[in-house]
C-alpha cells in the first residue's frame, strides 16, 4: 500500500485484529479479559496465546516478550493514528473552544459552519451590526438550525483594545481565527486576552504582500513588499512571529464565491448580463489566480491542530492560474452567456479618478499552493468554471449582488476606443427594471 | 487468517508474529509521515518501490536542437548514481564532436561511459549488449521513434521517451500546462505515446520546456545577451509579459535520472520544468542587470510587422504565447526538486557567454533590422550588422550621449526621439506640427529626405 493513511487498510487491520481477539476471549477465559477489547487487553491476550494454560506467574519467554513489544508498538501506532493523522485533522482533532474575530461577512460564514460541523465550539467576536447567524444559500434548513443553535457571540469592537482584552479574558479560548485583522496593534489585545489558554493563532493575511517579481509564481519564501497596501498584514505576521505563539498565516490570492463583497466575479457578471463588452487593461494576458471561498475555509480548518503548520505561512488559492481574458470567458461560461467581446485598452491613456476600471491589479499575480497541498493535506475542490458557476448559481444568478453596476469607466474607455459610434446597448434598458432584491438582500 | 485458525496454537503464534511484522512496517511508514523527521533508514514504502541497482542504460541522443545536451548531463547524473551508461548519438561523428555538447563527451568516457555513434532509425547500428533502461532523447514522431521501440520492445525494464511540452495545446484561459491537458492534434509526440501504450512496453514520458545551461547546442537566453551586450534594441513580441519556463539542464537531468528502478513512474507522463517561470521582459532585465547595462526593449506585434505566424515570431527564440507548465506531479511522485533559479544563474550564463568570446563574434541581426525598420525605428548603419560592430560606438555610450545633449539647446521635457529611444533618425523639420494632436506630418518624400533616414511614424505616441 502506498498510502499509509489508507483508511481501508487501517480498517482491515482493525477489523481482523478485533475478530481474532473476540475468538480468543473464550479460549482465554482464565484471564477474564473484559470486553470491549482495548489495546491493553490485546497485550494480555497475545501474551496469553503463548502461555495459555500455564501459570500466569511464569515470566514470559523471549518470544512472548517480542510479541509484547510488537503489540506495544501497535498500540502506540494506533494512538498516533488517532491523535495526529493530518488527513482528517478536524475530525480527529478533539473539539476546541474557538474564537473567530469577525465571521459574519464572507470567509467566516463558511469557516464557522465547517468548524461547528466538525464539533468545535465557535464564538464570533463582532460589533453585532449583522446577525451572527443568518441563512446563506449553501444552508439547508436543518444545517442552519443546528448552526444557529451552536454558534456563540461576543459583542464588541476590536478596535477598542482594553475592551477586547477584558471580554476575552477568562473565556478560555484555545484557538483564534483572526480573519478580519488589518494592523498588528489589533492582534495584541487578542493575544493578551487569550494568553493562558491559547494553543493556536490562525491569521488571514494576503498574497498582496509579495513583492512584484518577474519570476512567478509567488512562493511562501519570496520577498515581501514593505510598501504594499497590505503592510498591516506583514506587520501582524511579524508580531506573531516575535511573540513566539504557535501561529499560522494564510495568504489567499483573489477570493471568489457566493456572497463575495469584493466585486471580483460580480464585476464580470454585471457586464455579461448587460451584454456589454468587457474592457480589459493591457493585453489581457496578465496571469492571476482565483480561489473559491469554500476551499479557503477548508484550508483554514485543515490548519487546526496540524503540527506541520506551526509558525508556517501558506498561500491558498485555486490550483490553476488564469489570464484576465480567461476570467471574462470563464464567467461567460459559468453564466451560460455567449463568449464576450473583450476590449483591450492602455490604462495610461485614461484618467479614471477614484473609480477602479478593473477589479484586479494590472500585473501578474499568482502564487503556488503546493506547500499547502503537501503540508495541510488539502486540495482545492473547485476548478475555475465550476467555482464561478457555483458563485453564479448561488448569488448573482439569483439576482443578488453587493455593488450596483457602474459602467462609468467602461463608457470612458469604449468612447475612446470605438469613438462616438459606440452606444450603450439596449440591454441597459433591460437592466433598468432591476429585480427588487438587487440591493444585496444579504445585508 | 480464518482458515489458519483451525490449525495449532503454534500457527497462531506465527500468525501473530506476522501480523506484528506487518504492523511494524505500517508503523514505520506511519511514524515517518507523522513525525516528519528523517529516519536513519529508508522508509519501508520507498524500499518497496525503488530498488537500488546498477542499471545498464542506453541514451539515444539527438544531433542538435534544444534537447541535445540532455544526453550529456543525464549521462553524468546516471554515472554519479552508479549506473552503466552508453550514449548512442545520431549524426555525423566527425562534424558533431567539434561543437558542444558533443565535444564534452570525452569527460563522460573518463567517468566510464561508452560513446557510440549510430542511427536511431536503424537497429543494426545500435550498440551491442542488453540494456535495462533506454532513453529516447531523439525522436519527435512515430517514424523516428518506432524502430527503436520495436527493437527494445521485450528487452528493457523501462523505456523513457523524452517528448516535449510543445505538444500541449495553448490555452488562452488557463495557460499553465498540467499533465493530462489537451494536446495539439499535429504533435508527433502524441502518436509515439499512443504507440508505446499499444506495444505495452513499460514506459515513462517526459515533457520538457525550454532548457538553458552550459554546453547547449541551441541558444536560449543567449539571444538576449547578443543584443544587450552590443547595446542593440531587443525586439520583443508585445506585450512582453508572456511567461515562459526556463529550466536548467541539470534539473532536467536529475528528474530523468530518477527513473531507473522506479516502478511508480511506469505509464506516467511528467512535465519537466522549474517551478518558476519568467516573462520576456523579465529575462531582458535579468540579463541586463548581469551585464550592468540597461535593456532597450522594443515591443512589437509580429503579425503587424509581418514576421509572425501562429504563436511564433520569426527571429525570436521562444513561442510568443504563455508557455509554462506545472511540475508538481514530478515533485509529488518522483520526489524531485529543482535546484536552479534562472535569476541566480544568469550571472554565470553571461560569464560563460563572454568566456566563449561570443561578444566579439558577428551576429546576424537582419531580422531585427527588418522589424525595427517596419516600426520606423531602424538602428543606424544597418549595414553594420553585416560587418563587425567592433569599435562602433553607439549613441547609448555615455560619452556620446553627453555630447549630443550638451550641443543642442535645452529642449522641453518631452521628446519623441528620446521617448521612442530612436538611435539616429532624422526628424522631418516640421515635426512639431504633429504634436498636441494636430495634423500628423506626412512622411517626407524621397526627394526631400536623405536616403537612409526615416520619419517619425504617425502613431508614435501609441508606442509610449
TrEMBL record, chain A:
<dbReference type="GO" id="GO:0005996">
    <property type="term" value="P:monosaccharide metabolic process"/>
</dbReference>
<dbReference type="GO" id="GO:0003978">
    <property type="term" value="F:UDP-glucose 4-epimerase activity"/>
</dbReference>
<dbReference type="InterPro" id="IPR001509">
    <property type="entry name" value="Epimerase_deHydtase"/>
</dbReference>
<dbReference type="Pfam" id="PF01370">
    <property type="entry name" value="Epimerase"/>
</dbReference>
<feature type="domain" description="NAD-dependent epimerase/dehydratase">
    <location>
        <begin position="196"/>
        <end position="316"/>
    </location>
</feature>
<dbReference type="InterPro" id="IPR036291">
    <property type="entry name" value="NAD(P)-bd_dom_sf"/>
</dbReference>
<protein>
    <recommendedName>
        <fullName>NAD-dependent epimerase/dehydratase domain-containing protein</fullName>
    </recommendedName>
</protein>
<feature type="domain" description="NAD-dependent epimerase/dehydratase">
    <location>
        <begin position="98"/>
        <end position="181"/>
    </location>
</feature>
<dbReference type="GO" id="GO:0005829">
    <property type="term" value="C:cytosol"/>
</dbReference>
UniProtKB/TrEMBL annotation, chain B:
<dbReference type="Pfam" id="PF01370">
    <property type="entry name" value="Epimerase"/>
</dbReference>
<feature type="compositionally biased region" description="Polar residues">
    <location>
        <begin position="385"/>
        <end position="405"/>
    </location>
</feature>
<feature type="domain" description="NAD-dependent epimerase/dehydratase">
    <location>
        <begin position="153"/>
        <end position="273"/>
    </location>
</feature>
<feature type="compositionally biased region" description="Low complexity">
    <location>
        <begin position="440"/>
        <end position="457"/>
    </location>
</feature>
<feature type="region of interest" description="Disordered">
    <location>
        <begin position="384"/>
        <end position="464"/>
    </location>
</feature>
<feature type="compositionally biased region" description="Low complexity">
    <location>
        <begin position="406"/>
        <end position="415"/>
    </location>
</feature>
<protein>
    <recommendedName>
        <fullName>NAD-dependent epimerase/dehydratase domain-containing protein</fullName>
    </recommendedName>
</protein>
<dbReference type="InterPro" id="IPR001509">
    <property type="entry name" value="Epimerase_deHydtase"/>
</dbReference>
<dbReference type="InterPro" id="IPR036291">
    <property type="entry name" value="NAD(P)-bd_dom_sf"/>
</dbReference>
Amino acid at each position: 500500500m502506498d498510502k499509509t493513511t489508507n483508511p481501508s487498510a487501517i480498517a482491515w487491520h482493525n477489523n481482523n485484529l478485533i475478530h481474532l481477539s473476540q475468538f480468543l476471549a473464550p479460549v482465554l477465559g482464565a484471564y477474564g479479559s473484559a470486553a470491549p477489547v482495548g489495546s491493553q487487553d490485546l497485550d494480555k491476550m497475545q501474551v496469553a496465546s503463548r502461555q495459555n494454560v500455564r501459570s500466569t506467574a511464569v515470566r514470559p519467554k523471549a518470544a512472548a516478550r517480542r510479541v509484547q513489544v510488537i503489540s506495544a508498538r501497535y498500540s502506540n501506532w494506533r494512538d498516533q493514528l488517532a491523535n495526529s493523522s493530518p488527513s482528517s485533522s478536524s475530525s480527529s482533532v478533539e473539539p476546541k473552544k474557538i474564537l473567530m474575530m469577525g465571521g459574519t461577512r464572507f470567509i467566516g460564514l463558511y469557516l464557522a459552519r465547517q468548524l461547528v460541523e466538525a464539533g468545535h465550539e465557535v464564538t464570533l467576536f463582532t460589533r453585532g451590526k449583522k446577525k451572527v447567524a443568518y441563512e446563506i444559500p449553501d444552508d439547508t434548513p436543518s444545517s442552519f438550525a443546528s448552526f444557529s443553535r451552536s454558534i456563540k457571540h461576543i459583542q464588541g469592537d476590536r478596535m477598542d483594545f482594553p475592551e477586547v482584552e477584558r471580554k476575552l479574558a477568562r473565556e478560555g479560548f484555545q484557538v483564534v481565527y483572526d480573519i478580519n485583522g488589518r494592523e498588528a496593534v489589533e492582534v495584541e489585545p487578542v493575544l493578551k486576552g487569550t494568553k493562558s489558554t491559547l494553543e493556536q493563532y490562525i491569521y488571514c493575511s494576503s498574497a498582496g504582500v509579495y513583492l512584484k517579481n518577474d519570476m512567478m509564481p509567488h512562493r511562501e519564501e519570496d520577498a515581501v513588499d514593505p510598501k504594499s497596501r497590505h503592510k498591516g498584514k506583514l506587520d501582524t505576521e511579524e508580531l506573531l512571529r516575535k511573540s513566539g505563539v504557535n501561529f499560522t498565516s494564510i495568504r489567499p490570492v483573489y477570493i471568489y464565491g457566493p456572497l463575495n463583497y469584493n466585486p471580483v466575479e460580480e464585476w464580470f457578471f454585471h457586464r455579461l448580463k448587460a451584454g456589454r463588452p468587457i474592457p480589459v487593461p493591457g493585453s489581457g494576458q496578465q496571469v492571476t489566480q482565483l480561489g473559491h471561498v469554500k476551499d479557503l475555509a477548508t484550508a483554514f480548518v485543515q490548519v487546526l491542530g496540524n503540527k506541520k503548520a506551526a509558525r508556517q505561512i501558506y498561500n491558498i488559492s485555486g490550483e490553476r492560474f488564469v489570464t484576465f481574458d480567461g476570467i471574462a470567458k470563464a464567467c461567460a461560461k459559468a453564466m451560460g452567456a455567449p463568449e464576450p467581446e473583450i476590449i483591450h485598452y492602455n490604462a495610461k491613456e485614461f484618467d479614471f479618478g477614484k473609480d477602479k476600471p478593473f477589479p484586479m491589479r494590472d500585473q501578474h499575480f499568482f502564487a503556488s499552493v503546493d506547500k499547502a497541498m503537501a503540508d495541510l493535506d488539502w486540495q482545492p475542490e473547485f476548478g475555475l468554471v465550476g467555482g464561478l458557476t457555483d458563485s453564479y448559481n448561488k448569488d448573482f444568478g439569483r439576482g443578488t449582488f453587493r455593488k450596483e453596476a457602474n459602467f462609468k469607466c467602461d463608457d470612458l474607455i469604449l468612447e475612446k476606443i470605438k469613438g462616438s459610434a459606440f452606444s450603450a446597448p439596449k440591454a441597459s434598458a433591460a437592466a433598468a427594471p432591476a429585480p427588487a432584491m438587487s440591493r444585496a438582500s444579504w445585508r | 487468517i480464518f482458515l489458519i485458525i483451525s490449525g495449532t496454537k503454534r500457527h497462531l503464534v506465527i500468525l501473530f508474529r506476522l501480523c506484528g511484522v506487518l504492523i511494524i512496517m505500517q508503523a514505520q511508514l506511519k511514524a515517518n509521515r507523522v513525525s516528519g523527521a528523517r529516519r536513519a533508514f529508508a522508509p519501508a514504502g520507498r524500499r518497496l518501490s525503488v530498488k537500488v541497482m546498477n542499471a545498464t542504460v542506453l541514451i539515444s541522443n539527438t544531433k542538435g536542437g534544444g534537447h541535445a545536451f540532455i544526453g550529456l548531463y543525464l549521462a553524468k547524473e546516471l554515472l554519479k548514481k552508479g549506473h552503466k551508461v552508453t550514449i548512442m548519438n545520431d549524426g555525423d561523428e566527425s562534424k558533431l564532436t567539434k561543437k558542444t555538447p558533443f565535444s564534452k563527451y570525452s569527460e563522460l568516457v573518463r567517468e566510464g561511459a561508452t560513446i557510440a555513434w549510430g542511427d536511431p532509425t536503424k537497429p543494426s547500428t545500435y550498440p551491442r549488449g542488453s540494456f535495462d533502461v533506454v532513453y529516447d532523447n531523439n525522436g519527435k514522431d512515430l517514424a523516428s521513434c518506432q524502430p527503436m521501440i520495436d527493437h527494445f520492445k521485450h528487452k528493457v525494464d523501462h523505456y523513457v521517451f523524452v517528448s516535449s511540452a510543445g505538444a500541449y495545446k495553448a490555452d488562452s484561459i488557463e495557460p499553465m500546462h498540467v499533465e493530462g491537458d489537451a494536446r495539439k492534434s499535429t504533435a508527433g509526440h502524441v502518436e509515439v505515446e499512443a504507440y508505446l501504450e499499444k506495444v505495452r512496453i513499460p514506459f515513462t514520458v517526459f515533457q520538457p520546456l525550454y532548457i538553458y545551461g552550459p554546453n547547449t547546442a541551441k541558444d536560449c537566453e543567449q539571444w538576449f545577451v547578443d543584443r544587450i551586450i552590443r547595446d542593440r534594441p531587443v525586439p520583443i513580441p508585445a506585450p512582453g509579459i508572456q511567461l515562459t519556463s526556463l529550466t536548467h539542464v541539470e534539473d532536467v537531468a536529475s528528474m530523468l535520472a530518477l527513473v531507473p528502478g522506479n516502478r511508480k513512474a511506469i505509464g506516467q507522463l511528467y512535465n519537466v520544468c522549474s517551478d518558476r517561470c519568467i516573462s520576456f521582459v523579465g529575462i531582458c532585465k535579468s540579463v541586463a542587470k548581469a551585464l550592468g547595462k540597461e535593456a532597450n526593449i522594443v515591443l512589437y506585434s509580429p503579425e503587424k510587422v509581418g514576421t509572425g505566424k501562429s504563436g511564433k515570431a520569426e527571429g525570436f527564440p521562444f513561442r510568443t504565447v504563455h508557455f509554462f507548465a506545472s511540475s508538481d506531479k514530478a515533485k509529488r511522485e518522483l520526489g524531485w526538486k529543482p535546484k536552479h533559479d534562472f535569476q541566480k544563474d544568469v550571472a554565470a550564463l553571461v560569464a560563460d557567454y563572454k568566456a566563449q568570446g561570443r561578444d566579439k563574434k558577428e551576429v546576424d541581426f537582419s531580422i531585427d533590422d527588418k522589424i525595427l525598420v517596419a516600426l520606423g525605428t531602424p538602428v543606424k548603419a544597418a549595414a553594420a550588422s553585416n560587418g563587425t560592430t567592433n569599435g562602433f560606438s553607439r549613441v547609448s555610450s555615455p560619452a556620446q550621449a553627453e555630447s549630443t545633449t550638451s550641443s543642442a539647446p535645452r529642449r522641453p521635457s518631452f521628446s519623441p526621439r528620446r521617448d521612442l529611444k530612436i538611435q539616429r533618425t532624422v526628424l522631418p523639420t516640421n515635426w512639431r506640427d504633429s504634436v498636441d494632436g494636430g495634423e500628423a506630418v506626412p512622411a517626407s518624400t524621397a526627394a526631400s529626405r536623405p536616403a537612409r533616414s526615416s520619419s517619425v511614424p504617425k502613431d508614435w505616441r501609441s508606442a509610449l
